[in-house]
Amino acid sequence: MSESPTLTARIANAVGALPADEWDALAGSDNPFISHAFLSAMEDSGSVGPGTGWSALPIVIEGDDGRIAAALPAYLKEHSQGEYVFDHGWADAWHRAGGQYYPKLQIAAPFTPATGPRLLLRDESLARPLLRAVELLCEQEGLSSAHATFIEPDQLPLFEAAGWMPRNDIQFHWENRGYSSFDDFLSALSSRKRKAIRKERTAAQAGVEIRALSGDEIRPEHWDAFWMFYQDTGARKWGTPYLTRQAFDLLGERMGDRVLLMLAYIDGIAVAGALNFIGGSALYGRYWGAIVDKPFLHFELCYYQAIDAAIARGLARVEAGAQGGHKLARGYEPVRTWSAHWIADPRFREAVADFLERERQGIAADQLYLGERTPFRKG
After folding, report:
1. 2-170+336-371 has which fold?
2. Which pLDDT belongs to residue 365?
3. Strand 282-290 vs strand 317-319: parallel, antiparallel, or unpaired?
């Protein structure tokens, strides 16, 4: 596929097959999940690839110097699992109409509902050729659609300019308003909420030692413990955990300085854990699990310890993952997240566009409702 005499678009069979320095020069250092290290770890660990329903098809545009000038992480998907932007209803409707929704193309960081860049560009003028390459791939291979999920808001206009349909949802993020400590954050809350959180933290920490590990501090036995927790949570949530055991080893080896692993110990035995990734401006909570049922330990490890860590590192926010209205009472506020969608069939595209317009109205009302119910002091 060629876009101009000096630009060539091509499909690679893996992010790992592309030069790490060229990929990361476009991806930047702010978001860990779009890095060459993270995406290649997903491939090399078998978390994506044969048998997973995720086949890596990164698309790149090379300049006349032979270097990557634009890129995006794309996957041929045989299902809609691990995306956190739900299109099962679209798939069912298309199948009932006699169409074939799968396979589709997904532009995403696998298994990661965290906002970040999806178009990795040397220059914004390359956005349209890059998205046109996606559309041509879908047309040539008979794919029903292409979907870019958890798009950085600044990039949404690039998708809209190319005719892709925007969709939004709500997550709960904690915002650092210049707090110097957790108590400083608590002082911004209403008295009732402040007391409730202190009570939860006291109960969660009773008889528990919490260790925060990063980089070389994380040893194989720590990953073994966390793998046990992760398997339990994954089996209950998804049926089969998305990541393989090797994925955690590779993440530790390749980007350990961007990993923050919280482990809770009772009598010297690890009983629960929460895995976070450290970005340039945010802390991203990803996975949690436990082998004990201790009240409020989930909130402590996943939400309160994350706030502590973000304040200590001077990070602007904590993104604690998808869903979870219970985060609202703990100082996490409703924030819009964005995706963009391209549908090949004109009639199906029109039906989806109508659905999205009605959905947007409901989500806007939800965000307004939730925003009025944050635990912060009024006035």
Report:
1. Aminopeptidase (3.40.630)
2. 79
3. parallel
